[in-house]
Amino acid sequence: MKNLLNKEIRLAASPLSYIFLVAAVMTLLPGYPILMSAFFICFGVFHSFQHAREANDTLYTVLLPVRKRDFVRAKYMFTCLIQLAGFIVCTALTAVRMSALSKAQPYVGNALMNATPLFLAFVLLIFAAFNVLFVGGFFRTGYKIGVPFLFFGIACLLLIAVAEILPHLPGLEFLHVPSGERLGLQCGLLAASAFVYGILTFASCRTAERRFERIDL
Amino acid sequence: MTVAILEVQGLVKRYPSFLLDGVTFSLEPGRIMGLIGRNGAGKTTTLKSIFNLVHPDGGEIRVFGLPMPEKEREIKQRIGFAGGAVDYYERKKIRDIAKVTASFYESWDEEAYRRYLSVFSLEEDKTPMQLSAGMRVKFSLTLALSHRAELLILDEPTSGLDPVSRAELLDVFRYLKGRGVSILFSTHITSDLENCADDITYIAKGKLIASGSLDGFLAENRQAGRGDTLEEIMVWHEKEPLYEKLAE
What we know:
The complex is a heterodimer.
Chain A: H1 2-12, H2 15-19, H3 36-54, H4 57-62, H5 68-98, H6 105-108, H7 117-141, H8 146-165, H9 183-214
Chain B: E1 6-15, E2 18-27, E3 32-36, H1 43-50, E4 58-63, E5 66-68, H2 72-78, E6 79-82, H3 94-102, H4 110-119, H5 133-145, E7 151-155, H6 163-178, E8 182-187, H7 190-196, E9 199-204, E10 207-213, H8 214-223, H9 230-238, H10 242-247
Parallel strand pairs in B: 3-8, 3-9, 6-7, 7-8
Antiparallel strand pairs in B: 1-2, 1-4, 4-5, 9-10
């Protein structure tokens, strides 16, 4: 598996997957739907799938002494690796916003979502949607990327809309406080979303392995 | 009795508009077998089935006596596949592709790799995109040979090559045969086979027409008045009376 991951990084990946990690810095933007950072990180991974498809990566890989399911796992591992890197940056910047910058006027008067543990929870949910709808959708055929990405795009927009609306609902205003309020509850939601991310990604990977095994290349 | 290095028994694959119908053949160590048939006859489906790229609906495949796909990883360590010219990672340097490929094989021989690069005049700083069709096939073979493959499976390796490149490639095949490597290659350029193959397997419209020694196949068909060369024999078997149909 280490060899396959190395192959993903050195041959199959598009440089855009790494460049789009910079989108995590959007976490700092006031007056902007900062969950778009998660969308752009996924968009970077999408480019690697596109790049790999054009480079006949699938055929090259399945001719190596590996099982078809290993190919699927390597793609999920690469995707999760990029998502983890993006999540770490988002988390670090969220911590900065919640501490050193918590009283900064642009954030105090921010009409849109502030960076809080709830934001990070939604980042993970968007990543999970990508893994299920796009990566899982790709392995239905082994080559189609347009429709799976469209489905992910719709799901992502819905998740962003829900996340932006939540702090404006009566009783949930505390979700909007820049320094974070009721952090125990918010961290609990973050942990729950991490659990959902793990379960959905694992299930999606297993399903993709079965689907891809049945495909005639 | 020699143990076959590759055994294909009753291979069946159904597509909506095509049926590969019970193809059976075997390849012995150190021999070159040509898999012939016209375009769409089922040659590539047969080769892909051997590599578990397509899933047969019936039949059995054993490589080195091991069942495919149950022993897929073990088998792939010992075989090399070249689907003609390299058409993957066209913008990556040969050096990078080879380095990654090497990491997957326990028996990768760096010295042999360097030697093939030198003999084939391949430059590691070039990308597949910068190579001619003949050089791409040679790079593909370099990768397959550098992990000491005991069986080479090649899908139309000589298609699209100029006569000189084809002659060079056949020289390589003869050299490898001398070193005990078995080769199965599909082609519809029958003159290539007459120059280097020991055996042939002939498939037409998904059905096996013949499988055995090339000399025996030629002698049998000459005696039956079907032609003197593989090309004439194939034409005798498969040519459709299009002229007559058009003239009706």
